[in-house]
Amino acid sequence: MYAIAQSETIDASRKVNDLQRQRLEETIKLKEINVKEVEAKEMAIQEKVKYEAVKREVEYVKECAEREAAQKKDAEINAFREAKEKEKLENVLLGPLQQYQKFEWEEIVSATSSFSDNLKIGMGGYGIVYKCSLHHTIAAVKLEILSNIHHPHLLILLGACPDHGCLVYEYMENGSLEDRLLRKNNTPPIPWFDRYRIAWEIASALVFLHNSKPQPIIHRDLKPANILLDHNFVSKIGDVGLSKMLNSESSAISTLSKDTGPVGTLCYIDPEYQRTGLISQSSDVYAFGMVILQLLTAKPAIALAHTVELAVEDGHLADLLDIEAGQWPIEETKELAVLGLKCAELRRRDRPDLRDHVLPELQRLKEFADRARDMASNAQLAPPNLFMCPILKDVMEDPCVAADGYTYDRKAIEIWLKEDDKSPMTNLPLPDKSLIPNYTLLSAIMEWKSGKQ
């Protein structure tokens, strides 16, 4: 009996031990399951965070792609505009001058609603300007004397009513250079390379006026308010109809004319003209120098020459430049500032010749700016990094998110997974080989590609 009881006790003890061991194993398995559940939840959270980050990046890339498409379109427009401007200039030099159209006074009164204040768009030194539509053409009407001069960067005279001294000019959609430099109505800033070009355009128009035959013409009221910009930001000088025609019998070195009444705007008037009453082409050069300094700084003209001169001498010109214009090239911009200061010298004899010195320098700087603009445009057309497959190093055709949270081209990652179970980016084992299509990124890539065409 004792042996039987002892045997049963041993069996019971063995069963208890087996039961305890089985329970311990189940406890360990339960802990492992809990750990895996926590890891799975953490991985899900990480995947969600990655998805949100990718979503934000895609939205940003989409915005960048839209901007890049717009910039490419602007570059194409600029190239077309330059070709047209060259054609216009050739026509001016080689072809006959176009005659202006004559309008009846009643047409102008009707088009301006009897010169309604609601159609008033500005006031020059010699008359009020009204916006209207004449013969299905948007135009600007101004009461002043007539002008028959034509140049790509002089405001085009569409027609006139001679009996009432009323002029009809082309309408310039982007208003005056002054308004754009001051960013009136929160308009976008003018990029620095366009400002280089505008300086050259204004100088070329002034050279044309100063060398007109049979008599040279002086503008006498050059300023940013009288420089207008069309829809492509091509600049044209206005108020030319009031320019002073000089006697061609004057000195070949410097053409001077006695003026009996003050004409012009404070801060742009030639100091020697104020002192002596003698007007010359150099008077326009002084005003042009002030315009250059305003193109660089977008600051009021009063005391501007002195401020820029000190900044150049102290090596602080960069602090004075208009930061809204972008990343100015320091050396070339310094050259332009020095050129503006030379033009704005107090004495006529210290100012450079516009045709022989100023215009060639501006031509060189304009060509530099054009190259910089084209290089920037080409760089902006490169695909964003987010569009590139880490395996192919090329734009993805079918982007998919792998288990490591990174996006790859589907064909490239499928070939990779056939040979390797590790992530191409982290070199860590992939939990699985599932691929999730990234439709948002695909849409952005397709939109970017369509913008390139």
Discrete helix count: 12
Outline the low-pLDDT stretches. 92-98, 244-254
Structural class: alpha+beta
What's the architecture of the largest domain in CATH terms?
Orthogonal Bundle
**Beta strands, count:** 15
Shape: elongated
Assigned CATH class of the largest domain: Mainly Alpha
CATH topology heading of the largest domain: Transferase(Phosphotransferase), domain 1
Order of helices and strands: HEHEEEEEHHEEEEEHEHHHHHEEHEH
Residue fraction in strands: 5-15%
**Order of strands side by side in the largest beta sheet?**
1-5-6-4-3-2
Q: Would you identify the CATH H-level superfamily of the largest domain?
A: Transferase(Phosphotransferase) domain 1
Helix share of residues?
A: 40-55%
Radius of gyration: 37 Å
Cα end-to-end separation: 101 Å
Please, what is the oligomeric state?
Answer: single chain
What secondary-structure arrangement, pairings included, does this model have?
Blueprint: H1 2-94, E1 101-102, H2 105-111, E2 120-124, E3 127-134, E4 137-143, E5 157-161, E6 166-170, H3 177-181, H4 192-210, E7 217-218, E8 227-229, E9 235-237, E10 244-245, E11 256-258, H5 271-276, E12 278-280, H6 281-297, H7 304-314, H8 317-320, H9 330-343, H10 354-380, E13 399-401, E14 407-409, H11 410-419, E15 436-437, H12 439-452
Helix pairs in contact: 1-10, 1-12, 4-6, 4-10, 6-9, 7-9, 9-10
